[in-house]
TrEMBL record:
Family: Belongs to the class I-like SAM-binding methyltransferase superfamily. RsmB/NOP family.
Catalytic residues, chain numbering: C335 (nucleophile)
Region forming the signal peptide: none
Keywords, alphabetical: Methyltransferase, RNA-binding, S-adenosyl-L-methionine, Transferase
A Pfam family per the record: Methyltr_RsmB-F
InterPro entries noted in UniProt: MeTrfase_RsmB-F_NOP2_cat, MeTrfase_RsmB-F_NOP2_dom, RCMT, SAM-dependent_MTases_sf
GO biological process: RNA methylation
Protein species of origin: Edaphosphingomonas fennica
Record-given protein name: RNA methyltransferase
Length: 399
């Protein structure tokens, strides 16, 4: 592909990504993969170059751009080589007209900047869009961290998580024999840390209420050394169905799965009422802490969608609380740095649940020195901790 052809491909993809953001369609990564599946003629260098253009344009534009062309023109303002690719050739975009609008640069839509800016400074806000490192969690059921480190060239221990390794950018993890052998899972260090806050132990009964495809379930199983009862729930059948093959590869013993009906979760879990040692609520959230991986997610969020998520989180934390046994724990996690979803949600819960309390500060409890105390919990941010952004609280039910 010529530079002009690459620019046109990036514009086409950005148009698709903008449209998908408006209607809640597929993520940018999925759209890019689909685009190239249908264009096998594009070589790996072209794919990398187009992908890079697309992600640079997404990262640069805080507000949803008017079009893919406007988004790419925004990037071309500081990139003369890219501006030259608007050459009007048969495969390329038309030349940039004098005064033609470029998408404005920024970190996030104004309404969201206002919410996030209440507790994050400029540097912390812009770090939300850094490029994320490639982290894995070594599967303690099968190997030690040192053993897996020796198998992967360039792997280094992550700064905080006990089983974390950071791999060189571009490592094709799924092609590594150690992956097929279940010796590790791809998992951001922050996600490893907040799961460790559950302090799941062998023999416990643990519920992962919003398990998705099981990223945290597998870490819980490893911490439990495959002993005890682990119940993974989710309301999304497709996500939950991806857990079984992952569990098998990881050598994780039986995990019970429960497909929940949104709104009727408590009925499906009635048999577990007051009976669970630890309930993990990795709540559905706006994902503002994961923009490093999905920067287009900030184009998807609206105030109405955020309100709906906050209401769902408030409901799920209460469904979870009913399952916790006296003296047990509820661990509430969001990969968001919006207060209403994290610290605010937990403060509201504590205000109407007499006797419940925020447990010991997490780093002391888990031995992990990461994050900063925030509200009744702990917060991790890309700027301070080099992880995705998370809020986690560990709540104790009275005896
Ligand atoms: C942050 S994601 C979970 C990610 C997962 N724990 C992991 O570590 O990979 C939130 C999950 O909540 C699920 N969810 C949404 N509504 C739910 C409900 N009413 N009950 C249970 N899970 C729900 C979503 O399907 C989604 O998988």
């Amino acid at each position: 592909m010529t530079p002009a052809g690459r620019a046109q491909a990036a514009i086409d993809l950005l148009d698709e990504i903008i449209a998908a953001a408006a209607r809640g369609g597929a993520a940018a990564d999925t759209l890019i993969a689909r685009y190239f599946k249908a264009r096998r003629y594009a070589g790996s260098k072209d794919r990398r170059a187009v992908r890079d253009l697309v992600y640079r344009a997404i990262r640069r534009a805080g507000e949803v751009p008017a079009s893919g062309r406007a988004a790419l023109i925004g990037l071309a303002v500081d990139d003369p080589a890219l501006a030259a690719a608007f050459d009007g050739s048969a495969v390329g975009p038309a030349p940039i007209a004098a005064g033609e609008a470029a998408a404005p640069g920024g970190i996030a839509p104004a309404w969201l900047m206002e919410r996030l800016g209440r507790s994050l400074d400029e540097a912390q806000l812009s770090a939300l869009l850094d490029r994320a490192p490639l982290d894995i969690r070594v599967n303690a059921l099968k190997a030690s961290r040192a053993e897996v480190q020796a198998l992967i060239p360039g792997a280094e221990p992550t700064p905080h998580a006990a089983m974390g390794l950071r791999l060189p950018e571009g490592t094709q993890v799924e092609a590594l024999p150690a992956f097929a052998q279940g010796l590790f899972e791809v998992q951001d260090e922050g996600s490893q840390i907040v799961t460790a806050a559950a302090d799941a132990r062998p023999g416990m009964t643990v519920v992962d209420l919003c398990a998705g495809a099981g990223g945290k379930t597998l870490a819980l199983a490893a911490a439990m050394e495959n002993r005890g009862r682990l119940i993974a729930c989710d309301a999304d059948r497709a996500r939950l169905s991806r857990l079984a093959p992952r569990a098998e590869r990881a050598g994780v013993g039986p995990v019970e799965t429960r497909l929940l009906d949104g709104g009727r979760e408590a009925d499906a879990l009635a048999a577990l009422r007051d009976a669970v040692d630890v309930v993990l609520v990795d709540a559905p959230c706006s994902g503002t802490g994961t923009w490093r991986r999905n920067p287009e997610a900030r184009w998807r969020l609206t105030p109405e969608r955020l309100d709906r998520l906050v209401a769902l989180q408030a409901r799920l934390i209460r469904v979870a609380a009913a399952l916790v046994r006296p003296g047990g724990y509820l661990v509430y996690i969001v990969c968001s740095l919006v207060d209403e979803e994290g610290a605010g949600q937990v403060a509201a819960f504590l205000a109407d649940h007499a006797g419940w309390s925020a447990a010991e500060p997490l780093p002391v409890q888990t031995g992990l020195i990461a994050g900063s105390p925030y509200g009744a919990g702990l917060r991790l941010t890309p700027a301070t901790d080099g992880t995705d952004g998370f809020f986690v609280a560990r709540l104790h039910r009275p005896w």
